[in-house]
Amino acid sequence: MMRARNAALFLLCVLLASPALAQPRGRINGKILDDQGKPAVGVEVHAVRTGEPAPTVAKTNDKGEWQMQLAVGDWNLEFVKAGFDPQRMAVKVADGRNPAIDLKLTKAVDPNVELQEQMKKAAELQQAGKVADARKIVEDLLVKYPTAYRLNAFVAQLYEAEKNYDKAIEYAKISVEKEPAEMELKMFLAELLTQKGDKVEAQKVLDTIDMAQVKDPTVFLNQAISSINAGKADEAIATLDKVGKQFPTRSDVYYYRARANIVAKKMAEAKADLEKFVSMAPADSPQVADAKKLLEQLKDVK
Fold it and tell me: How far apart are CA 60 and CA 45, in angstroms?
């Protein structure tokens, strides 16, 4: 009698507990088309929500149709198929049957292919004199691919072509900030600052560059020339000393250093640099005639 009563009580507890434990569920379904409007076969539909140990997964059939049963509540769906961009959405699943979820996939585009195609268009527009249109293409790419940091340098170049140095410097600084190891970007920034007339800031940038990594010292030569013109011969000489050490076969380095030495009234050093320049420079170098004239004036310097 005791066993029968215990069994009856256990059965009653199960019956009372079952409605509380059972979760209402809803059915969701839909149809997925590919970029051509045809049924997308084999698309994986992942349903995820907080607290669930693993996603619920379904696949589309040969008609592009899919369905699944989910507990009532908020879910995040992701639709995945190789060669197409994944699509995501949040849905609220209600008890029973829910409205169909139909969508169309978008063909995945290789970012590098798109970047190359669009940059080619931008280059063609720039060559045609449509700089603003070219810049718009690159700026749009930068919005779409924000981690393609080098695009900032291209935008800076296009602003430079428009002589908008403030904007060019703004984008060049971003480029340097994102890729601080790229010496060419720093040199470009220094060149822009020089063109704007901010020679002090340009020099600060150049001072951070390891000359051993420089392939073309033109920006350093331009900065030295600016220093000579400003009467800052010592700064010019210091810059040209560094350039000459790294590029000993650049004849123009000796010509400009001679000019700086003349400003500094170091005539013996100027004469030595001019003699070296004349011995190294090609006969058709535009500075040869001036160098020879200066040497004639300095012929008595010991």
Answer: 8
Q: What CATH number corresponds to the domain at position 59?
A: 2.60.40.10
214 in the same domain as 192: no
> How does pLDDT run across 187-205, given as a tens digit for each residue?
999 999 999 999 899 999 9
**Same-domain status, 116 and 202:** yes
Range of the domain at 286: 210-302
Q: Give the model confidence (pLDDT) of 144-198 as tens digits.
A: 999 999 999 999 999 999 999 999 999 999 999 999 999 999 999 999 999 999 9
Taking the CB of residue 52, how many other CB atoms lie within 10 A of it? 13
Alpha carbon distance 148, 183 (integer Å): 18
